[in-house]
Amino acid sequence: MGEVLAWWAALLVLWLMLISTVSTLEWVVGACAAGVGALAARAGRRAVSDR
């Protein structure tokens, strides 16, 4: 769970740095997108390390 949380935090910060305005909707969209990215990163790392 810690790995997913670390990916999520890093991706959320990246999202917020790349947008021009920070509103509540951008926080929600960024958090959801970061969650999807974090799960994909974990799945990709597990797929590579299981070989």
Description of the structure:
The protein is an all-alpha fold and 51 residues long. The chain is 84% helix and 0% strand. The chain has 2 helices and no strands. Helix 1 (2-18) crosses helix 2 (24-49). It is elongated, with a radius of gyration of 12 Å.
Fold blueprint:
Layout: H1 2-18, H2 24-49
Distance between the termini: 22 Å
Low-confidence runs (pLDDT<50, min 5 residues)?
none
Q: Strand share of the residues?
A: under 5%
Level of helix content? over 70%
**Series of secondary-structure elements, N-terminal to C-terminal:** HH
Q: For the report, how would you describe the main beta sheet? A: none
Contiguous helical run count:
2
Structural class: mainly alpha
Overall outline: elongated
Overall mean pLDDT stands at 92
Count of β-strands: 0
| Rg over CA atoms | 12 Å
Quick structural gist:
The protein is an all-alpha fold. Helix content is 84%, strand content 0%.
Keywords:
0% strand, mainly alpha, 51 residues
